[in-house]
């Protein structure tokens, strides 16, 4: 992600649990847990890059010791509330270098914020750097070039004092480049007061072969794995794994 953060990750970050509640992640987190244990070594310590509000981590932390890295201080603050027992680190997945290694690296939908092949390759280098030999990296883009189709979706949740509904409109202004756009409209309720806010997210879109080629170029044994729980609106339902070979 280059330029200013989307408002969702910045001044609106406290609304994240009302846009996408932690309970919604149960089934997919179980799929990620199983996939991560496909490493060639036992998986105990997991680094999550772009951990956001920590909704996957709320489920994965029962099985793994999680270290959570995100670029947005306001999202880290949300995650700390949910996951006080996890270590949180402010960092950029394109360049962060921690002085330790992990059994697995997990990059969920945050990897969709990489807009160029160069950025994607930098994330793969970060994952490689932090993995022990035999460790596994798992990347879960929202879409690939082959499976993306424009869509609109909506959702949101209510709590007693606050509620939110959103409209998400994904479109691809220039199919020749490696980006698509998500226009967001949020209706935010505080007590009986309502306001509407607009936001925009720039997302990366790469052919399946690019994912596999860049992972291989980094040295990973790369694979595409069908996503067990993705809905058709969530694209082709494929995630990518990279095994760091045992030396
Ligand atoms: C959709 S949220 C992730 C939500 C997360 N899957 C969860 O379980 O709550 C995307 C996150 O990616 C983070 N992000 C975007 N670019 C990043 C980068 N270069 N390095 C680290 N985090 C980044 C954003 O700050 C945001 O918190």
From TrEMBL:
Organism, scientific name: candidate division WOR-3 bacterium
Keywords, alphabetical: Methyltransferase, S-adenosyl-L-methionine, Transferase
SUPFAM superfamilies from the UniProt entry: S-adenosyl-L-methionine-dependent methyltransferases (SSF53335)
Name of the protein in its database record: Class I SAM-dependent methyltransferase
Transferase listed as a keyword: yes
GO molecular function terms attached to this record: methyltransferase activity
Protein's GO biological process: methylation
Keyword Glycosyltransferase in record: no
All residue ranges annotated as the Methyltransferase domain in the record: 46-135
Pfam families: Methyltransf_25 (PF13649)
């Amino acid at each position: 992600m280059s330029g200013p953060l989307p408002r969702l990750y910045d001044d609106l970050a406290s609304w994240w649990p009302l846009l996408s509640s932690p309970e919604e992640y149960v089934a997919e987190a179980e799929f990620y847990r199983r996939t991560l244990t496909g490493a060639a070594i036992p998986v105990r310590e997991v680094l999550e890059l772009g951990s956001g509000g920590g909704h996957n981590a709320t489920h994965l932390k029962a099985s793994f010791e999680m270290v959570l890295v995100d670029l947005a201080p306001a999202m880290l603050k949300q995650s700390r509330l949910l996951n006080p027992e996890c270590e949180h680190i402010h960092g950029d997945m394109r360049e962060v270098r921690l002085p330790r290694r992990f059994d697995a690296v997990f990059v969920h939908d945050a990897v969709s914020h990489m807009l160029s092949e160069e950025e994607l390759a930098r994330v793969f280098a970060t994952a490689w750097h932090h993995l022990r030999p035999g460790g596994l990296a798992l990347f879960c883009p929202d879409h690939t070039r082959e499976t993306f189709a424009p869509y609109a979706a909506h959702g949101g949740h209510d709590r007693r004092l606050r509620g939110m509904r959103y409209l998400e409109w994904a479109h691809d202004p220039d199919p020749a480049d490696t980006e698509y756009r998500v226009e967001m409209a949020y209706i935010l309720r505080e007590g009986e007061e309502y306001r509407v806010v607009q936001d925009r997210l720039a997302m990366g879109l790469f052919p399946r072969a690019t994912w596999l080629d860049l992972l291989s170029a980094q040295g990973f044994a790369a694979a595409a794995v069908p996503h067990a729980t993705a809905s058709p609106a969530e694209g082709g339902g494929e995630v990518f794994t990279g095994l760091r070979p045992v030396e």
